[in-house]
Amino acid sequence: MSFRPTVREVQPNRKIRWMGRFLVPGIFDGEHTLAIEPLGQGRVRFSQVERFSGALTMFSGKLFDRTQRGFEAMNEAVKRRSESLEP
Question: What's the pTM?
Answer without folding.
Answer: 0.72
